[in-house]
Amino acid sequence: MLNQFKKIAFLAVSVAGIFTVGPVNATSVSLPVRSAQLPVTNILVQNTGANEVFQQGVNLARQQNMEGAEAAFRRAIQMDPNFAEAYANLGSILANQNKLAESLPNFENAIRLKPNTPEFHYMLGQVLYAQNKMADAVESVKKARDLFRKQGKTQEANTLEQVLKDMGSR
User: pTM of the full predicted structure?
Assistant: First the structure.
C-alpha cells in the first residue's frame, strides 16, 4: 500500500462533492484510493465574487483544464485570502503536477484557516509523504484521523488508522 502513495494522484479525497453549501462536512472518504476529483467542489463563502471564480475553477477541473482551474483558484484566493477551500484545491492541482514544494504552503494555508478540516491535514500528509518527510507525514495523518474521530466519522478514522499502520506508525 505504501508504494501506491507515490504512484497515486494527489487530489485530496476521492469523493465527488466532499463539501456542500453551508457548513463544511465530508460526506464520505475512501482513502487511500485517489481519483482525479477536487477535494472541494461546492462551498458557500462570504465573498460571492470569489465563490463564483472558485466554482469556475471546479468546472474547469472537471473538464480536465487544470491550467485554467489553477488560474481560477489563484484568482479566488486573491479575491478572498481567507478562502481555505481554494487553497486546498490549488494545492491538489499543484501536487498532481508534481509541484510538491509549491503545493505545501497552500495546504498549510488551508489548515491555518480551517484547522478542524481533517481532509486538509490528510492532503498535507500525502505531500509530506511524497517528499519523504515521514515523521511530519505521520503527524499530519494522525491529526486527520483524530479530527475524524472527534467529528464522529468512524469509518474515515479507521481507514486512516490502517494507513498509519501501513506507514509503520500508530
Answer: 0.74
